[in-house]
Amino acid sequence: MLVVGCGGGFDVYAGIPIATRLLASGKTVVLANLSFAALPRSGAEKVLPSIWRIDRQCRDLPYFPEKWVSEWLARRDLALPIYAFERSGPRELSAGYRQIISEHEVDLVLLIDGGTDSVIFGDEPGLGTVVEDAVSVVAASAATEKFIMLASIGFGIDHFHGISHHSFLQNTAHLIRDGGFLGTFSLTANTDEANDLMDLVEHANRRQPAHRSIVMNSIVSAMRGEFGDYHATDRTSGSELFINPLMAQYWFYSAHHLVRRMAYATELLEAQSWEEAQAIIERTSQAMTRRPRLPIPL
Question: Considering only the top CATH level, what class is 2-211+247-287?
Answer without folding.
Answer: alpha beta
